[in-house]
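note to self — DONT lose this again. spent like an hour looking for the file last time. sequence + predicted structure for the chain T wanted, 201 res
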Amino acid sequence: MIKVLLADDQALVRGALAALLGLEPDIEVVAQVGSGAEVVPAALRTEPDVALLDVQMPGGDGLDAAGALRSALPTCRVVVLTTFGRPGYLARAMRAGASGFVVKDAPPEQLVDAVRRVHAGLRVVDPTLAAESLSSGTSPLTDRERDVLVAAADGSTVAAVAARLHLSEGTVRNHLSAAIGKTSARTRAEAVRLADERGWL
């Protein structure tokens, strides 16, 4: 049996995926969680062979959870499953050690096949997304510029972002200015939107 952990913050989606995978004679869903923070504890309890992780979840996104899971339980293979097929997400997923990347609107049999192939030691990547990722290149943002944009995404003031990230206000302004330039945006709100659309956040 291939033991699978599911992580998705939408209970309906999580339940549907569990039901779908449960129909397969060689797959057993051993854990279901709704946040990134629950992934590693659940994996350590149940020792899954494959983890299906949604990208956008509370308590740390699926990409961060993928990296943490690879460190905590190296035998568990990770498939990132997302509604948002953004090239930047693919690059981040691969850097985090994911073995697969599947968009949620893929046919059900493609997801089942991805679980089996990743379990067998192969890599599985949505072909359209792979082509887009190659053509769009990697994110030009540094890790700190990304952190500052994420912190500023809710419209927080420079002072609030600086306090949250334990940086000086001048440093925050410099990072915001660099991020605005690298995204070819006019404002920081536009920089956040463009970076998010490209999967860089």
